[in-house]
Amino acid sequence: MQGWIPYIDSPDKNGFRLLFVDIQNHRVLARKGENCRLELFNYGIEKDVSIGPKPYTTVIIGSNGIGKSFILGAIAEIFRHLKELQMPNNNGDKKALVFRFAIQYFMNGHCYKISNLLSGWAKSDTIDATFPNYYCWEDERPCALTWCPLPTAVLASAVSISDRFKTHKKEDGFYWYLGTRNENSPSTTGTKTLVRKTVSAIAEGLSQNPSFRERLKMLLSVLGLEPRMVIHYSLRYKKVYLSEPMTEERFLSIFNEWQRYFEAAGSSRTSPPWGYHKFPEISDNQENVREIVRYLNKLRNTNQGGRTNHIEYSIDDSALGEDWKAIKLLTALDIMKYPTIRVFKGSESGIASESFLFEESSSGETNMLCQLINILSHIEQHSIVLIDEPETSAHPNWQIRYIDWLNEIFGSFHTCHFIISTHSHFLLTDLRKENSAIVALKRDNGKTINISKGLNTFCWSVDDILYKVFQVRNTRNEAFERDLFELYRLMKTDSPENKSKATTILNSLKDVVLRDGDPLKVLIDKAKKYVES
Predict the structure, then answer these.
(1) Cβ–Cβ contacts within 10 Å for residue 446, how many?
(2) How many CA atoms lie within 13 A of 300 on its CB side?
(3) What's this model's pTM, rounded to 2 decimal places?
(4) Which neighbouring-strand residues pair with 155?
(5) Torsion of CA 458, 462, 466, 469, to 10 degrees
(6) Cα dihedral angle (192, 196, 198, 200), rounded to 10 degrees?
(7) Can you state the percent helix, strand and coil of the chain, rounding each to 5?
(8) What is the sign of the dihedral through the CA atoms of 166, 169, 170 and 176?
(9) pLDDT one-digit tens code per residue, 144-155
(10) Is residue 69 within 8 Å of 421, Cβ to Cβ?
(11) Buried b / exposed e across 10-40, counting CB within 10 Å, b at 16+?
Protein backbone atom coordinates (compact mmCIF):
# COMPACT_ATOMS: atom_id res chain seq x y z
CA MET A 1 0.00 0.00 0.00
CA GLN A 2 1.22 3.51 -0.73
CA GLY A 3 2.52 5.23 2.40
CA TRP A 4 4.03 2.28 4.28
CA ILE A 5 7.44 3.02 5.72
CA PRO A 6 9.97 0.69 4.01
CA TYR A 7 10.77 -2.47 6.00
CA ILE A 8 13.30 -1.70 8.68
CA ASP A 9 15.13 -3.72 11.29
CA SER A 10 16.57 -2.77 14.66
CA PRO A 11 19.50 -4.13 16.63
CA ASP A 12 17.44 -3.61 19.78
CA LYS A 13 14.67 -6.21 20.04
CA ASN A 14 12.69 -4.64 22.86
CA GLY A 15 10.27 -1.76 22.53
CA PHE A 16 7.12 -0.28 20.94
CA ARG A 17 7.06 2.47 18.32
CA LEU A 18 4.05 3.60 16.29
CA LEU A 19 5.53 4.41 12.89
CA PHE A 20 2.64 5.27 10.62
CA VAL A 21 -1.13 5.81 10.66
CA ASP A 22 -3.54 6.31 7.76
CA ILE A 23 -7.12 7.32 8.62
CA GLN A 24 -9.87 7.33 6.01
CA ASN A 25 -13.58 8.23 5.99
CA HIS A 26 -13.30 10.02 9.32
CA ARG A 27 -15.96 12.68 9.91
CA VAL A 28 -13.34 15.31 10.81
CA LEU A 29 -9.90 14.13 9.71
CA ALA A 30 -10.69 12.62 6.35
CA ARG A 31 -14.10 12.83 4.74
CA LYS A 32 -15.28 10.23 2.22
CA GLY A 33 -12.63 9.62 -0.42
CA GLU A 34 -9.93 11.46 1.57
CA ASN A 35 -7.29 10.29 3.99
CA CYS A 36 -5.13 11.63 6.81
CA ARG A 37 -1.72 9.97 6.54
CA LEU A 38 0.97 10.64 9.13
CA GLU A 39 4.46 9.31 9.80
CA LEU A 40 4.94 9.46 13.57
CA PHE A 41 8.54 8.29 13.66
CA ASN A 42 11.44 10.29 12.30
CA TYR A 43 12.48 7.52 9.94
CA GLY A 44 13.70 9.91 7.26
CA ILE A 45 16.42 11.11 9.64
CA GLU A 46 17.04 8.10 11.89
CA LYS A 47 16.94 5.30 9.27
CA ASP A 48 16.18 2.74 11.99
CA VAL A 49 14.02 2.29 15.06
CA SER A 50 16.66 1.40 17.63
CA ILE A 51 15.16 1.69 21.10
CA GLY A 52 17.26 4.26 22.94
CA PRO A 53 17.70 4.97 26.66
CA LYS A 54 14.67 7.29 26.75
CA PRO A 55 11.04 6.88 25.60
CA TYR A 56 10.27 8.13 22.10
CA THR A 57 8.22 11.32 21.79
CA THR A 58 6.22 12.49 18.79
CA VAL A 59 4.79 16.00 18.98
CA ILE A 60 1.87 16.86 16.70
CA ILE A 61 1.63 20.63 16.42
CA GLY A 62 -0.83 22.80 14.56
CA SER A 63 -3.33 25.60 14.92
CA ASN A 64 -6.77 25.29 16.51
CA GLY A 65 -9.27 23.23 14.52
CA ILE A 66 -6.63 21.30 12.58
CA GLY A 67 -7.72 17.96 14.10
CA LYS A 68 -4.87 17.18 16.51
CA SER A 69 -7.13 15.92 19.30
CA PHE A 70 -9.15 13.83 16.84
CA ILE A 71 -5.92 12.16 15.65
CA LEU A 72 -5.08 11.06 19.20
CA GLY A 73 -8.65 9.91 19.75
CA ALA A 74 -8.58 7.88 16.53
CA ILE A 75 -5.28 6.20 17.47
CA ALA A 76 -6.72 5.21 20.85
CA GLU A 77 -9.86 3.82 19.22
CA ILE A 78 -7.86 1.79 16.68
CA PHE A 79 -5.92 -0.03 19.39
CA ARG A 80 -9.01 -0.49 21.57
CA HIS A 81 -10.81 -2.01 18.61
CA LEU A 82 -7.93 -4.35 17.78
CA LYS A 83 -7.73 -5.46 21.41
CA GLU A 84 -11.44 -6.31 21.39
CA LEU A 85 -11.03 -8.33 18.19
CA GLN A 86 -8.20 -10.31 19.78
CA MET A 87 -10.18 -11.20 22.90
CA PRO A 88 -10.97 -14.92 23.38
CA ASN A 89 -14.26 -16.25 21.98
CA ASN A 90 -14.58 -13.30 19.61
CA ASN A 91 -16.11 -14.30 16.28
CA GLY A 92 -15.38 -11.06 14.51
CA ASP A 93 -18.75 -9.57 15.45
CA LYS A 94 -17.43 -6.69 17.56
CA LYS A 95 -18.80 -3.28 16.70
CA ALA A 96 -16.82 -1.85 13.79
CA LEU A 97 -15.09 1.50 13.89
CA VAL A 98 -16.86 4.35 12.10
CA PHE A 99 -13.72 5.02 10.04
CA ARG A 100 -11.11 2.90 8.28
CA PHE A 101 -7.42 2.79 9.00
CA ALA A 102 -3.97 1.39 8.34
CA ILE A 103 -1.24 1.35 10.99
CA GLN A 104 2.36 0.27 11.07
CA TYR A 105 4.27 -0.24 14.29
CA PHE A 106 7.40 -1.79 15.67
CA MET A 107 7.16 -4.24 18.57
CA ASN A 108 9.95 -6.31 20.09
CA GLY A 109 12.10 -6.48 17.01
CA HIS A 110 9.30 -7.03 14.47
CA CYS A 111 7.45 -4.67 12.15
CA TYR A 112 3.66 -5.10 12.02
CA LYS A 113 1.12 -3.70 9.57
CA ILE A 114 -2.64 -3.88 10.07
CA SER A 115 -5.24 -2.40 7.74
CA ASN A 116 -8.97 -2.60 7.02
CA LEU A 117 -8.89 -0.24 4.01
CA LEU A 118 -11.16 -1.40 1.21
CA SER A 119 -8.89 -1.13 -1.80
CA GLY A 120 -5.42 -2.16 -2.86
CA TRP A 121 -5.43 -5.76 -1.61
CA ALA A 122 -5.49 -9.19 -3.16
CA LYS A 123 -7.22 -12.17 -1.58
CA SER A 124 -3.81 -13.75 -1.03
CA ASP A 125 -2.95 -10.90 1.35
CA THR A 126 -5.13 -12.30 4.16
CA ILE A 127 -4.97 -15.71 5.85
CA ASP A 128 -7.38 -15.08 8.74
CA ALA A 129 -10.87 -16.40 7.99
CA THR A 130 -12.21 -14.91 11.26
CA PHE A 131 -11.36 -11.37 10.14
CA PRO A 132 -11.48 -11.44 6.31
CA ASN A 133 -11.55 -7.64 6.04
CA TYR A 134 -8.32 -7.14 7.97
CA TYR A 135 -4.95 -7.41 6.29
CA CYS A 136 -1.98 -8.09 8.56
CA TRP A 137 1.75 -8.58 8.09
CA GLU A 138 4.68 -9.43 10.32
CA ASP A 139 7.99 -8.39 8.74
CA GLU A 140 6.43 -8.32 5.24
CA ARG A 141 4.84 -11.78 5.66
CA PRO A 142 1.01 -12.07 5.80
CA CYS A 143 -0.18 -13.22 9.22
CA ALA A 144 -3.32 -13.59 11.32
CA LEU A 145 -4.63 -10.61 13.28
CA THR A 146 -4.30 -12.57 16.51
CA TRP A 147 -0.57 -12.98 15.83
CA CYS A 148 0.04 -9.24 16.02
CA PRO A 149 1.08 -8.20 19.55
CA LEU A 150 -0.37 -4.87 20.67
CA PRO A 151 1.10 -2.30 23.07
CA THR A 152 0.84 -3.36 26.71
CA ALA A 153 -1.42 -0.41 27.52
CA VAL A 154 -3.00 2.64 25.88
CA LEU A 155 -3.00 5.72 28.12
CA ALA A 156 -5.23 8.64 27.08
CA SER A 157 -4.37 11.78 29.06
CA ALA A 158 -6.02 15.21 28.79
CA VAL A 159 -6.76 18.19 31.01
CA SER A 160 -9.28 19.81 28.68
CA ILE A 161 -12.99 19.11 28.97
CA SER A 162 -13.20 18.92 25.18
CA ASP A 163 -10.75 16.06 24.64
CA ARG A 164 -11.70 13.48 21.98
CA PHE A 165 -10.96 10.34 23.96
CA LYS A 166 -13.60 7.80 24.92
CA THR A 167 -14.26 7.38 28.63
CA HIS A 168 -14.82 3.94 30.13
CA LYS A 169 -17.09 2.81 32.92
CA LYS A 170 -15.37 -0.55 33.30
CA GLU A 171 -11.60 -0.81 33.42
CA ASP A 172 -10.11 -3.49 31.18
CA GLY A 173 -6.42 -3.15 32.10
CA PHE A 174 -5.55 -2.13 28.53
CA TYR A 175 -7.15 1.26 27.85
CA TRP A 176 -6.96 3.93 30.53
CA TYR A 177 -8.84 7.20 30.16
CA LEU A 178 -6.90 9.68 32.31
CA GLY A 179 -8.80 12.84 31.35
CA THR A 180 -10.85 15.20 33.47
CA ARG A 181 -14.31 13.98 32.50
CA ASN A 182 -16.31 11.78 34.84
CA GLU A 183 -16.53 8.19 33.55
CA ASN A 184 -20.09 7.77 34.83
CA SER A 185 -21.17 11.12 33.41
CA PRO A 186 -18.80 12.07 30.55
CA SER A 187 -20.44 15.47 30.05
CA THR A 188 -19.45 16.59 33.57
CA THR A 189 -16.04 17.45 34.89
CA GLY A 190 -14.33 19.52 37.55
CA THR A 191 -11.45 19.81 39.99
CA LYS A 192 -13.04 17.26 42.34
CA THR A 193 -13.13 14.67 39.57
CA LEU A 194 -9.50 15.38 38.75
CA VAL A 195 -8.41 15.12 42.40
CA ARG A 196 -10.43 11.93 42.92
CA LYS A 197 -8.77 10.30 39.93
CA THR A 198 -5.35 11.41 41.12
CA VAL A 199 -5.87 10.01 44.63
CA SER A 200 -7.10 6.76 43.08
CA ALA A 201 -3.97 6.64 40.91
CA ILE A 202 -1.72 7.24 43.92
CA ALA A 203 -3.45 4.60 46.05
CA GLU A 204 -3.42 2.02 43.26
CA GLY A 205 0.24 2.75 42.58
CA LEU A 206 1.25 2.47 46.24
CA SER A 207 -0.67 -0.77 46.74
CA GLN A 208 0.38 -2.53 43.53
CA ASN A 209 3.75 -1.18 42.43
CA PRO A 210 6.73 -1.39 44.83
CA SER A 211 8.69 1.27 42.91
CA PHE A 212 5.80 3.75 42.59
CA ARG A 213 6.50 5.60 45.87
CA GLU A 214 10.06 6.54 44.89
CA ARG A 215 8.99 7.50 41.36
CA LEU A 216 6.24 9.70 42.79
CA LYS A 217 8.75 11.43 45.07
CA MET A 218 11.04 12.00 42.10
CA LEU A 219 8.12 13.49 40.13
CA LEU A 220 7.37 15.94 42.95
CA SER A 221 11.04 16.91 43.18
CA VAL A 222 11.32 17.45 39.42
CA LEU A 223 8.37 19.86 39.63
CA GLY A 224 10.08 21.85 42.40
CA LEU A 225 8.05 20.40 45.29
CA GLU A 226 9.11 18.55 48.40
CA PRO A 227 9.00 14.76 47.99
CA ARG A 228 6.04 14.33 50.31
CA MET A 229 2.27 14.49 50.03
CA VAL A 230 -0.71 14.16 52.38
CA ILE A 231 -4.12 12.82 51.34
CA HIS A 232 -7.10 13.67 53.53
CA TYR A 233 -10.41 11.81 53.77
CA SER A 234 -13.51 12.43 55.86
CA LEU A 235 -16.71 10.49 56.46
CA ARG A 236 -20.30 11.55 55.86
CA TYR A 237 -23.01 10.84 58.45
CA LYS A 238 -20.61 10.55 61.41
CA LYS A 239 -23.45 10.04 63.92
CA VAL A 240 -24.86 7.15 61.91
CA TYR A 241 -21.66 5.19 61.31
CA LEU A 242 -19.36 6.12 64.21
CA SER A 243 -21.66 6.58 67.20
CA GLU A 244 -20.86 3.07 68.46
CA PRO A 245 -18.61 0.14 67.45
CA MET A 246 -19.51 -1.21 64.02
CA THR A 247 -20.40 -4.84 63.35
CA GLU A 248 -21.35 -6.59 60.15
CA GLU A 249 -24.93 -6.94 61.36
CA ARG A 250 -25.21 -3.28 62.28
CA PHE A 251 -23.75 -2.13 58.94
CA LEU A 252 -26.23 -4.24 56.96
CA SER A 253 -29.05 -3.04 59.16
CA ILE A 254 -28.16 0.63 58.58
CA PHE A 255 -28.72 0.23 54.84
CA ASN A 256 -31.73 -2.03 55.13
CA GLU A 257 -33.41 0.30 57.66
CA TRP A 258 -31.73 3.57 56.76
CA GLN A 259 -34.68 5.80 57.75
CA ARG A 260 -34.67 4.57 61.37
CA TYR A 261 -30.93 5.10 61.80
CA PHE A 262 -30.89 8.56 60.20
CA GLU A 263 -33.85 9.72 62.31
CA ALA A 264 -32.08 8.47 65.45
CA ALA A 265 -29.02 10.50 64.42
CA GLY A 266 -31.15 13.64 64.14
CA SER A 267 -31.05 13.76 60.33
CA SER A 268 -34.04 15.04 58.35
CA ARG A 269 -33.00 13.03 55.30
CA THR A 270 -36.02 11.71 53.38
CA SER A 271 -34.22 9.76 50.66
CA PRO A 272 -31.60 7.00 50.82
CA PRO A 273 -27.89 7.87 50.38
CA TRP A 274 -26.77 8.37 46.77
CA GLY A 275 -24.86 5.10 46.83
CA TYR A 276 -27.81 3.08 48.07
CA HIS A 277 -28.37 1.44 44.67
CA LYS A 278 -24.88 -0.09 44.84
CA PHE A 279 -25.43 -1.63 48.27
CA PRO A 280 -26.87 -4.99 47.09
CA GLU A 281 -23.90 -5.69 44.81
CA ILE A 282 -21.34 -4.71 47.46
CA SER A 283 -23.04 -6.45 50.39
CA ASP A 284 -23.36 -9.74 48.48
CA ASN A 285 -19.63 -10.17 49.03
CA GLN A 286 -19.00 -10.86 52.72
CA GLU A 287 -15.34 -9.88 52.36
CA ASN A 288 -16.45 -6.40 51.24
CA VAL A 289 -18.64 -5.99 54.33
CA ARG A 290 -15.87 -7.27 56.60
CA GLU A 291 -13.37 -4.80 55.14
CA ILE A 292 -15.80 -1.86 55.50
CA VAL A 293 -16.52 -2.74 59.14
CA ARG A 294 -12.79 -2.99 59.91
CA TYR A 295 -12.15 0.42 58.41
CA LEU A 296 -15.08 2.16 60.12
CA ASN A 297 -13.86 0.91 63.49
CA LYS A 298 -10.36 2.10 62.65
CA LEU A 299 -11.76 5.52 61.74
CA ARG A 300 -13.83 5.62 64.94
CA ASN A 301 -10.68 5.04 67.01
CA THR A 302 -8.64 7.59 65.05
CA ASN A 303 -8.52 11.06 66.55
CA GLN A 304 -6.76 13.47 64.22
CA GLY A 305 -7.13 17.05 65.31
CA GLY A 306 -10.00 16.10 67.62
CA ARG A 307 -12.10 14.81 64.71
CA THR A 308 -12.92 11.10 64.63
CA ASN A 309 -14.40 11.14 61.12
CA HIS A 310 -11.20 12.42 59.49
CA ILE A 311 -8.06 10.55 58.47
CA GLU A 312 -4.87 11.58 56.72
CA TYR A 313 -2.41 9.48 54.77
CA SER A 314 1.19 10.20 53.94
CA ILE A 315 2.73 8.64 50.86
CA ASP A 316 5.61 7.52 53.09
CA ASP A 317 3.55 4.91 54.92
CA SER A 318 1.65 1.85 53.70
CA ALA A 319 -1.69 2.67 55.37
CA LEU A 320 -3.35 4.09 52.26
CA GLY A 321 -2.61 0.96 50.26
CA GLU A 322 -3.92 -1.21 53.11
CA ASP A 323 -7.15 0.81 53.45
CA TRP A 324 -7.72 1.45 49.76
CA LYS A 325 -10.26 -1.31 49.18
CA ALA A 326 -12.47 -0.08 52.04
CA ILE A 327 -12.15 3.55 50.89
CA LYS A 328 -13.26 2.63 47.36
CA LEU A 329 -16.27 0.73 48.69
CA LEU A 330 -17.30 3.55 51.03
CA THR A 331 -16.89 6.10 48.24
CA ALA A 332 -19.12 4.03 45.96
CA LEU A 333 -21.72 3.96 48.75
CA ASP A 334 -21.47 7.76 49.13
CA ILE A 335 -20.30 7.40 52.73
CA MET A 336 -16.81 8.81 52.08
CA LYS A 337 -16.41 12.41 50.93
CA TYR A 338 -14.21 13.55 48.07
CA PRO A 339 -10.54 13.53 49.14
CA THR A 340 -8.16 16.48 49.26
CA ILE A 341 -4.44 16.48 48.48
CA ARG A 342 -1.85 18.65 50.20
CA VAL A 343 1.61 19.18 48.69
CA PHE A 344 4.60 21.13 49.99
CA LYS A 345 6.85 23.68 48.37
CA GLY A 346 10.47 23.37 49.36
CA SER A 347 11.88 25.66 52.00
CA GLU A 348 14.68 28.09 51.21
CA SER A 349 17.09 29.95 53.48
CA GLY A 350 15.61 28.49 56.64
CA ILE A 351 12.04 29.53 55.79
CA ALA A 352 9.46 26.92 56.78
CA SER A 353 7.89 24.79 54.07
CA GLU A 354 4.69 26.08 52.54
CA SER A 355 1.87 23.60 52.05
CA PHE A 356 -1.17 24.06 49.85
CA LEU A 357 -4.19 22.10 48.70
CA PHE A 358 -4.63 21.16 45.07
CA GLU A 359 -7.82 23.20 45.04
CA GLU A 360 -5.85 26.26 46.16
CA SER A 361 -3.12 25.94 43.55
CA SER A 362 -3.22 27.44 40.09
CA SER A 363 -5.03 25.47 37.41
CA GLY A 364 -1.71 25.02 35.61
CA GLU A 365 -0.08 23.43 38.68
CA THR A 366 -3.09 21.22 39.36
CA ASN A 367 -3.34 20.07 35.75
CA MET A 368 0.36 19.25 35.47
CA LEU A 369 0.56 17.38 38.76
CA CYS A 370 -2.60 15.35 38.17
CA GLN A 371 -1.68 14.55 34.59
CA LEU A 372 1.83 13.29 35.36
CA ILE A 373 0.78 11.36 38.48
CA ASN A 374 -2.00 9.58 36.59
CA ILE A 375 0.38 8.58 33.80
CA LEU A 376 3.00 7.42 36.32
CA SER A 377 0.45 5.20 38.06
CA HIS A 378 -0.71 3.43 34.88
CA ILE A 379 2.31 3.29 32.59
CA GLU A 380 3.97 -0.02 31.79
CA GLN A 381 6.80 -0.93 29.46
CA HIS A 382 5.66 -1.08 25.80
CA SER A 383 2.81 1.40 26.40
CA ILE A 384 1.57 4.07 24.02
CA VAL A 385 0.86 7.31 25.89
CA LEU A 386 -1.42 9.83 24.16
CA ILE A 387 -1.37 13.32 25.72
CA ASP A 388 -3.75 16.00 24.46
CA GLU A 389 -2.67 19.65 24.91
CA PRO A 390 -0.63 19.32 28.12
CA GLU A 391 0.17 23.04 28.00
CA THR A 392 -3.35 24.03 29.09
CA SER A 393 -3.05 26.79 31.75
CA ALA A 394 0.67 26.06 32.17
CA HIS A 395 3.21 28.89 32.49
CA PRO A 396 5.53 29.21 29.44
CA ASN A 397 8.48 28.14 31.62
CA TRP A 398 6.68 24.89 32.42
CA GLN A 399 5.82 24.39 28.75
CA ILE A 400 9.46 24.82 27.79
CA ARG A 401 10.55 22.22 30.36
CA TYR A 402 7.72 19.76 29.74
CA ILE A 403 9.51 17.38 27.34
CA ASP A 404 12.58 17.37 29.58
CA TRP A 405 10.34 16.45 32.54
CA LEU A 406 8.84 13.56 30.58
CA ASN A 407 12.31 12.24 29.80
CA GLU A 408 13.40 12.55 33.42
CA ILE A 409 10.27 11.18 35.11
CA PHE A 410 9.60 8.38 32.60
CA GLY A 411 13.17 7.77 31.49
CA SER A 412 13.14 4.17 32.66
CA PHE A 413 10.16 3.44 30.37
CA HIS A 414 12.32 3.60 27.27
CA THR A 415 10.19 1.02 25.43
CA CYS A 416 7.19 3.40 25.40
CA HIS A 417 6.03 5.86 22.77
CA PHE A 418 4.58 9.23 23.83
CA ILE A 419 2.44 11.08 21.27
CA ILE A 420 1.51 14.65 22.20
CA SER A 421 -0.82 17.09 20.48
CA THR A 422 -0.23 20.78 21.11
CA HIS A 423 -0.44 24.28 19.70
CA SER A 424 2.39 25.49 21.94
CA HIS A 425 5.66 26.10 20.15
CA PHE A 426 7.36 26.18 23.57
CA LEU A 427 7.00 22.38 23.90
CA LEU A 428 9.38 21.88 20.98
CA THR A 429 12.35 23.64 22.54
CA ASP A 430 13.54 20.60 24.53
CA LEU A 431 13.05 17.93 21.86
CA ARG A 432 16.08 15.79 21.08
CA LYS A 433 16.71 14.51 17.59
CA GLU A 434 17.68 11.02 18.76
CA ASN A 435 14.37 10.19 20.47
CA SER A 436 11.66 12.44 19.04
CA ALA A 437 9.80 13.55 15.94
CA ILE A 438 7.73 16.58 15.02
CA VAL A 439 4.57 16.41 12.92
CA ALA A 440 3.60 19.95 11.87
CA LEU A 441 0.06 20.06 10.45
CA LYS A 442 -1.48 22.63 8.16
CA ARG A 443 -4.70 22.92 6.15
CA ASP A 444 -4.24 23.07 2.39
CA ASN A 445 -7.36 23.23 0.19
CA GLY A 446 -9.43 21.68 2.96
CA LYS A 447 -7.01 18.79 3.51
CA THR A 448 -4.73 18.22 6.51
CA ILE A 449 -1.10 17.88 5.43
CA ASN A 450 2.17 17.36 7.27
CA ILE A 451 4.45 20.22 6.25
CA SER A 452 7.36 18.79 8.27
CA LYS A 453 7.53 15.51 6.34
CA GLY A 454 11.01 14.92 5.00
CA LEU A 455 12.43 17.91 6.84
CA ASN A 456 14.75 18.03 9.81
CA THR A 457 12.58 20.26 11.98
CA PHE A 458 15.09 20.21 14.81
CA CYS A 459 16.87 23.15 13.22
CA TRP A 460 13.66 25.21 13.32
CA SER A 461 13.66 28.17 15.67
CA VAL A 462 10.61 29.40 17.58
CA ASP A 463 10.15 31.98 14.80
CA ASP A 464 10.26 29.20 12.19
CA ILE A 465 7.47 27.32 13.99
CA LEU A 466 5.30 30.39 14.48
CA TYR A 467 5.71 31.38 10.87
CA LYS A 468 5.59 28.04 9.03
CA VAL A 469 2.99 26.28 11.16
CA PHE A 470 0.76 29.05 12.50
CA GLN A 471 1.33 31.78 9.85
CA VAL A 472 2.16 34.17 12.67
CA ARG A 473 4.86 36.74 12.09
CA ASN A 474 6.35 39.32 14.40
CA THR A 475 8.55 42.30 13.73
CA ARG A 476 11.70 40.25 14.28
CA ASN A 477 10.66 36.96 12.66
CA GLU A 478 13.81 35.85 10.87
CA ALA A 479 12.11 33.15 8.79
CA PHE A 480 9.58 35.63 7.41
CA GLU A 481 12.28 38.18 6.71
CA ARG A 482 14.40 35.62 4.84
CA ASP A 483 11.51 34.85 2.51
CA LEU A 484 10.87 38.54 1.83
CA PHE A 485 14.53 39.33 1.16
CA GLU A 486 14.76 36.34 -1.19
CA LEU A 487 11.58 37.45 -2.97
CA TYR A 488 13.01 40.95 -3.42
CA ARG A 489 16.26 39.52 -4.80
CA LEU A 490 14.49 37.24 -7.28
CA MET A 491 12.39 40.09 -8.68
CA LYS A 492 15.54 41.90 -9.85
CA THR A 493 16.06 39.38 -12.66
CA ASP A 494 13.34 38.33 -15.10
CA SER A 495 13.96 34.61 -15.64
CA PRO A 496 11.78 31.45 -15.59
CA GLU A 497 13.94 29.99 -12.81
CA ASN A 498 13.51 33.06 -10.59
CA LYS A 499 9.77 33.17 -11.26
CA SER A 500 9.47 29.50 -10.27
CA LYS A 501 11.30 30.15 -6.99
CA ALA A 502 9.22 33.26 -6.36
CA THR A 503 6.02 31.27 -6.91
CA THR A 504 7.12 28.76 -4.26
CA ILE A 505 7.73 31.56 -1.75
CA LEU A 506 4.40 33.22 -2.54
CA ASN A 507 2.60 29.92 -1.93
CA SER A 508 4.17 29.72 1.52
CA LEU A 509 3.08 33.32 2.23
CA LYS A 510 -0.52 33.02 1.06
CA ASP A 511 -1.92 32.32 4.54
CA VAL A 512 0.05 35.06 6.31
CA VAL A 513 -2.34 37.79 7.46
CA LEU A 514 -1.26 41.34 6.59
CA ARG A 515 -3.32 44.43 7.20
CA ASP A 516 -4.24 46.76 4.37
CA GLY A 517 -1.62 49.42 3.88
CA ASP A 518 1.19 47.26 5.23
CA PRO A 519 4.29 47.91 3.05
CA LEU A 520 5.02 44.19 3.06
CA LYS A 521 1.65 43.57 1.41
CA VAL A 522 2.66 45.97 -1.33
CA LEU A 523 5.88 44.00 -1.89
CA ILE A 524 3.98 40.71 -2.08
CA ASP A 525 1.46 42.17 -4.55
CA LYS A 526 4.33 43.33 -6.77
CA ALA A 527 5.83 39.83 -6.59
CA LYS A 528 2.51 38.32 -7.74
CA LYS A 529 2.52 40.63 -10.77
CA TYR A 530 6.16 39.68 -11.41
CA VAL A 531 5.46 35.94 -11.65
CA GLU A 532 2.36 36.53 -13.79
CA SER A 533 4.18 38.76 -16.30
Answers:
(1) 7
(2) 17
(3) 0.80
(4) 176, 385
(5) 10
(6) 180
(7) 40, 20, 40
(8) positive
(9) 888 899 999 999
(10) yes
(11) beeeebbbbbbbbbbbbebbbeeeebbbbbb
